[in-house]
């Protein structure tokens, strides 16, 4: 039986006790304290609109080692087309992510409830977005949650070819520059694997996460122009 979390409870079951699908628990709410504890434990919410909140710790887990991100020659050219910003329009990035149709998905899991919860984390300096602009228009980007020295990627969108991949590349450059360890990509996808992400087992992922999830890195979420030319 999948454990239920009551709204007054902030403690999660051990993610290693997740069922074979990767479900750790259900219930609770999306208050900031619960979300922060979830990400620190390697757990994330993922559920359909009108369903109860389901908490996951998938096995295998997809991670991006920052040195392994693949920048092809064509992507390197695309990167130069866009202007990049952090956290300029976080909510719109989430809304755009929710509007993009995806293979094997009916509708979106990024509900109004999710947008409101993560916008609070953004205001706390815990969730961040990176955005690609073309001619002043927001055309691509992604958002995620910072846990210690790990960036947990949540979702991305692209209205112009390579706009989200270019934003991802710029994010990777900055995370390396600031001293982050890796990106948690959560659920394995062919797209992220093509960029260099690898599957690891849950035990390995949690061990890596727990070594750095309480460490902090002091920096501003601002574009370093020197990184755009490399």
From TrEMBL:
It is found in: Cytoplasm. InterPro entries: Acyl_CoA_acyltransferase (IPR016181), Leu/Phe-tRNA_Trfase (IPR004616), Leu/Phe-tRNA_Trfase_C (IPR042203), Leu/Phe-tRNA_Trfase_N (IPR042221). Its main location: cytoplasm. GO terms for biological process: protein catabolic process. Pfam families: Leu_Phe_trans. GO terms for cellular component: cytoplasm. Its EC number is 2.3.2.6. It comes from the Bacteria. Keywords: Acyltransferase, Cytoplasm, Transferase. One of its GO terms (molecular function) is leucyl-tRNA--protein transferase activity. It catalyses: N-terminal L-lysyl-[protein] + L-leucyl-tRNA(Leu) = N-terminal L-leucyl-L-lysyl-[protein] + tRNA(Leu) + H(+); N-terminal L-arginyl-[protein] + L-leucyl-tRNA(Leu) = N-terminal L-leucyl-L-arginyl-[protein] + tRNA(Leu) + H(+); L-phenylalanyl-tRNA(Phe) + an N-terminal L-alpha-aminoacyl-[protein] = an N-terminal L-phenylalanyl-L-alpha-aminoacyl-[protein] + tRNA(Phe). Functions in the N-end rule pathway of protein degradation where it conjugates Leu, Phe and, less efficiently, Met from aminoacyl-tRNAs to the N-termini of proteins containing an N-terminal arginine or lysine. Belongs to the L/F-transferase family. NCBIfam families: aat. This is Leucyl/phenylalanyl-tRNA--protein transferase.
């Amino acid at each position: 039986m999948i454990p239920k979390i009551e709204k007054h409870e902030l403690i999660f079951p051990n993610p290693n006790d997740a069922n074979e699908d990767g479900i750790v628990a259900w219930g609770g709410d999306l208050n900031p304290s619960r979300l922060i504890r979830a990400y620190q434990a390697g757990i994330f919410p993922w559920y359909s609109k009108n369903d109860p909140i389901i908490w996951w710790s998938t096995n295998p887990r997809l991670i991006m080692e920052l040195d392994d991100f693949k920048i092809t020659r064509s992507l390197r050219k695309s990167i130069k087309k866009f202007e990049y910003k952090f956290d300029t329009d976080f909510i719109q990035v989430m809304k755009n992510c929710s509007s993009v149709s995806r293979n094997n998905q009916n509708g979106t899991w990024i509900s109004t409830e999710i947008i409101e919860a993560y916008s609070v984390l953004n205001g706390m300096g815990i969730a961040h977005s990176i955005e690609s602009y073309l001619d002043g228009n927001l055309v691509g980007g992604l958002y995620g949650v910072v846990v210690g020295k790990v960036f947990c990627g949540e979702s991305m969108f692209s209205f112009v070819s390579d706009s989200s991949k270019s934003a991802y590349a710029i994010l990777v450059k900055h995370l390396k520059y600031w001293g982050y360890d890796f990106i948690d990509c959560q659920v394995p996808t062919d797209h992220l694997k093509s960029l260099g992400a690898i599957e690891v087992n849950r035990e390995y992922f949690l061990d890596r996460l727990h070594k750095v999830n309480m460490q902090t890195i002091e920096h501003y979420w601002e574009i370093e122009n020197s990184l755009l030319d490399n």
